[in-house]
Design goal:
The protein has a seven-stranded mixed β-sheet with strand order 1-2-3-4-5-6-7. Strands 8-9-10-11-12-13-14 form a seven-stranded mixed β-sheet. β6 and β7 form a beta hairpin. The chain is an alpha/beta fold and 436 residues long.
């Protein structure tokens, strides 16, 4: 394929133009390529990274001289950039390298291109692929190439070791249902973790059935997206109860209070439970806590993990997330005030008079740990208004407390905190959020 006149003109301009190694790349070691004028001379790209955002025959020709000196090259921006016509040649250039390279494919490629990628895996030390853009049969083909590598040591795929990547399979929305079910049949007994990310259908449920008897872990949902899991929870519960060995259950999607109760009846077959609590209603979380607290204190509860903690430890902590429309705030706060087992509270939402009223007696006597603010965001929760009351309660304590502060605090609030220091056992604080 001959380069068109526009690409020829850009090539000539690139020869005459002095290239700034810091532009248009985001980092000194990265060059972002959208046309040939963005490709510097060979000496500038040694041990550097090229991020190719657009592809043409002319760009491929210009890249040829760089492929044996680059440390990393990526293609695409998580959308289709029509890479397929060039993938065989790219793989051929990678195979000619003396040293391994890091490769990123963030664009849609077909099965033939995946085969070309598979043939050059022995020259890749770090592979990043946007699997969500690929058809399931294309990912399965890549899997087969990885399985047949004679020496997979040193290769990572999407940040994971080969063994870990091979043990997992993720199902995305938009994938043809018949192909998903077909691949699930081929994967039976070959994977340990199945992730149903953002779609759940009756066809997928049918394909999931035989896997639920042999999987080590099953995960539903991603980033809180509602996958309509409630329709399938009773069937999932029945299948889990028929297992011989325990399973790890991960839920990162909405689930109603009734189905939270269904999970309770499967605890004897669950070794670890991970639930993204911020997507649950307050009533659902109350039920989950009560269910854990009611479990028999035998060996089974001692080994159960909830969100990475021993079940007994997790049940003694309570975090306040954003209220859901269906939440009864008064009932939830009343439960918290009456639940003598709760020894740690985290306030991740704006403080209110009702929350402070509930928190005051707990803060003065029973709590072992208090957290104000979200450690991930550091968002302001209006704590300044209540620091005098917090201080009054803290000074009444007989025992010291673990105090975590991940929110903004003005000078008066800091002064109040200073008065509390004799009552604090451990203080964790984001200093950059405090008033100077």
């Amino acid at each position: 394929m001959e380069p068109d006149s526009k690409d020829k003109q850009q090539t000539e301009q690139a020869v005459c133009k002095k290239y700034d190694p810091l532009s248009p790349g985001k980092e000194p070691d990265e060059f972002i390529v959208t046309n040939v004028s963005h490709i510097p001379d060979k000496s500038s790209t040694r041990n550097k990274k090229l991020s190719v955002r657009k592809m043409s025959e002319c760009i491929l020709k210009a890249l040829t001289q760089h492929m044996n000196v680059l440390s990393e090259i990526t293609f695409g921006e998580h959308q289709d950039m029509l890479l397929d016509p060039y993938m065989a040649e790219i793989a051929s250039l990678i195979l000619k390298r003396k040293r391994k390279i890091s490769l990123g494919i963030f664009t849609r490629i077909n099965e033939k291109s995946v085969q070309a990628l598979g043939r050059c895996l022995q020259k890749i030390n770090r592979l990043s692929v946007d699997e969500q853009l690929l058809l399931p049969q294309a990912v399965f083909i890549l899997r087969e190439y990885v399985e047949h590598l004679s020496n997979p040591q040193g290769l990572t795929i999407n940040g994971r070791s080969v063994a870990t990547w091979l043990n997992e399979w993720k199902i995305h929305a938009g994938q043809p249902q018949d192909k998903v079910v077909q691949i699930l049949q081929l994967l039976l007994g070959k994977i340990k973790t199945l992730i149903i990310a953002d779609v759940m259908t009756y066809e997928i449920m049918d394909g999931l059935v035989p896997h639920l008897y042999v999987l080590d872990e099953v995960e539903f949902g991603e980033n809180g997206k509602d996958i309509n899991l409630d329709c399938y929870m009773d069937r999932i519960r029945q299948l889990i109860l028929k297992r011989k060995e325990k399973i790890s259950l991960v839920v990162r999607t909405k689930i109603c209070t009734f189905n939270m109760k269904l999970i309770y009846f499967t605890y004897e077959k669950i070794k670890s439970l991970t639930i993204d609590e911020k997507y649950l209603s307050a009533g659902g979380r109350v039920m989950l806590h009560d269910d854990i607290l009611r479990l028999p204190q035998d060996e089974s509860i001692q080994v159960l993990k909830v969100n990475g903690l021993d079940a007994n430890i997790w049940a003694k902590k309570w975090f306040m997330y954003d209220w859901k429309p269906e939440d009864n705030q008064s009932n939830t706060l009343f439960w918290l005030e009456c639940c003598v087992q709760v020894k740690g509270v985290g306030i991740l939402i704006d403080m209110t008079d009702k929350i402070m009223e509930t928190l005051a007696p707990m803060l003065a006597e029973v709590l072992h740990e208090i957290q104000f603010g979200n450690a991930e965001t550091g968002a302001d929760i209006n704590l300044d208004r209540y620091m005098v009351c917090v201080t009054t309660c803290m000074l009444q304590r007989k025992k010291k407390i673990v105090f975590k502060l991940f929110t903004e605090l003005n000078a008066i609030g800091i002064h109040c905190l200073g008065k509390c220091l004799p009552k604090i056992y451990t203080l964790s604080i984001y200093e950059e959020l405090l008033s100077p």
